[in-house]
């Protein structure tokens, strides 16, 4: 029996991109307004009892004092309890999990989960991400995100015959999906040849194998399942979730063909939801690089280990394929505003399960969607959330 004591009754986001014309607070307000407008039977903002904010802004900008007081003021809800949650790239995913637990516990009946991130107001040359991911002064010297993920790609190639064309096929698919998503940062098609010919970043990863730095915000409303009817006749329920950790440094890892925290988190989420990977209709997974999506679809149990590259190249993860992956365009096309990413992925799952995904809509005959992020130094943490439109689990 699924753990469906919590319902998602609203979700929304702003268009992702380089939003120099919007402040952090304006982005948050835009996402909140979109979320409120999505509630079928109407929603009064003052019904929000508590908020959970996902952001890395303090870490990225060197201003750790930024916390839960910023967002309530921005969205006109000063006075409510608001807690900042920062857990690397899965910050939004974890905020969603914590928000669901707050509702399930009975402490709150109506909770806002909101993710916001400004990534573009400072350049990479100013140490934006390197400061956030700073580790051992010797073991991690010179490491960047592509440097951390490239060894996974080369090892996967060595063990399973994965090719650069297979990696490129992930970018091709996700850019195609992004073109269908009005909220995506990039809305252009690319070809395998264009991915292969793009500038090298860290072998075997090229520029179009990498997600962009993106500004963005997204929000969802969680309510007690027994009150969902007050807001909508088409609720989506929280079926299960899982979190896991792994060693943060590359020299501590014993495998470069899986992100070990992901299968652990997925096992816990599947057990809570009472389903296996064969019941998932669509998934939003962490594709910060093309190799990451290939690892994800294997680690989540959608394909056997080593088979993810072939499955991607042959279209099994496309809309209409065996399992639709990253219908939103994923991080590669929609973008990766860190705190907002997981919440935006949840929004896409919500749309899919309600049949509201327009040209990106997939067949959700089983009634389950999965959302996943992995991140932190060396992908040391992963979060998996499973949603369902089934009232009976």
CATH class descriptor name:
Alpha Beta
Instruction: Tell me the major beta sheet.
Output: 10 strands, mixed
**How many strand segments?**
12
Write the CATH fold name. Peroxisomal Thiolase, Chain A, domain 1
Helix/strand/pairing category: alpha/beta
| CATH-defined architecture | 3-Layer(aba) Sandwich
User: What amount of the residues lies in strands?
Assistant: 15-25%
Q: Distance between the terminal alpha carbons, to the nearest Å?
A: 6 Å
- How do the strands of the widest beta sheet line up side by side? 3-2-4-7-1-8-12-11-9-10
Order of helices and strands: EHEHHEHEHHHHEEEEHEHHEHHEE
CATH superfamily: Thiolase/Chalcone synthase
Counted up, domains total 1
Instruction: Work out the helix count.
Output: 13
Shape: globular
Whole-number mean pLDDT: 92
Folded structure, characterized:
With 393 residues, the protein is an alpha/beta fold. The chain has a single domain (6-124, 211-388), classed as Peroxisomal Thiolase, Chain A, domain 1. The protein is built from 13 helices and twelve strands. A ten-stranded mixed β-sheet has the order 3-2-4-7-1-8-12-11-9-10. Strand 5 (200-202) and strand 6 form a beta hairpin. Helix 4 (91-104) crosses helix 13. The longest helix has 17 residues, at 338-354. The mean pLDDT is 92.
């Amino acid at each position: 029996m699924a753990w469906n004591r919590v319902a998602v009754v609203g979700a929304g986001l702003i268009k992702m991109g380089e939003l120099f014309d919007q402040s952090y607070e304006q982005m948050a307000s835009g996402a909140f307004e979109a979320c409120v407008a999505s509630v079928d039977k109407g929603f009064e903002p003052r019904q929000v009892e508590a908020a959970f904010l996902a952001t890395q802004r303090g870490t990225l900008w060197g201003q750790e004092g930024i916390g839960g007081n910023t967002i309530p003021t921005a969205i006109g809800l000063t006075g409510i309890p608001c807690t900042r949650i920062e857990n690397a790239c899965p910050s939004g995913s974890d905020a969603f999990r914590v928000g669901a637990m707050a509702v399930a516990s009975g402490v709150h009946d109506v909770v806002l989960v909101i993710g916001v991130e400004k990534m573009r107001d400072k350049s990479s040359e100013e140490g934006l991400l390197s400061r956030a991911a700073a580790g051992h002064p010797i073991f991690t010297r010179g490491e960047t995100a592509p440097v951390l993920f490239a060894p996974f790609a080369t090892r996967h190639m060595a063990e399973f015959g994965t090719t650069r064309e297979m990696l490129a096929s992930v970018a091709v698919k996700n850019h195609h999906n992004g073109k269908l998503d009005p909220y995506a940062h990039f809305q252009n098609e690319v070809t395998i040849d264009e991915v292969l010919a793009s500038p090298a970043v860290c072998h075997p990863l090229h520029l179009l194998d990498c997600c962009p730095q993106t500004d963005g915000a997204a929000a969802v409303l969680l309510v007690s399942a027994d009150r969902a009817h007050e807001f909508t006749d088409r609720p989506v329920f929280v079926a299960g979730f899982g979190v896991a950790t792994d060693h943060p440094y590359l020299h501590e890892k014993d495998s470069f063909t899986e992100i070990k925290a992901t299968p652990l988190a997925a096992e816990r989420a599947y057990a809570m939801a009472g389903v296996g990977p064969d019941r998932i209709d669509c998934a939003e997974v962490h594709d910060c690089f093309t190799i990451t999506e290939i690892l994800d679809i294997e680690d989540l149990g959608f394909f056997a280990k080593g088979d993810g590259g072939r499955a991607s190249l042959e279209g099994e993860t496309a809309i209409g394929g065996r399992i639709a992956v990253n219908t939103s365009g994923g991080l590669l096309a929609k973008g990766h505003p860190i705190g907002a990413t997981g919440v935006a992925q949840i929004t896409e799952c919500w749309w899919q399960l309600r049949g509201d995904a327009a040209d990106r809509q997939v067949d959700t005959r089983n009634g389950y969607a999965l959302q996943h992020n992995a991140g932190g130094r060396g992908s040391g943490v992963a979060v998996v959330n499973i949603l369902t439109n089934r009232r009976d689990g």
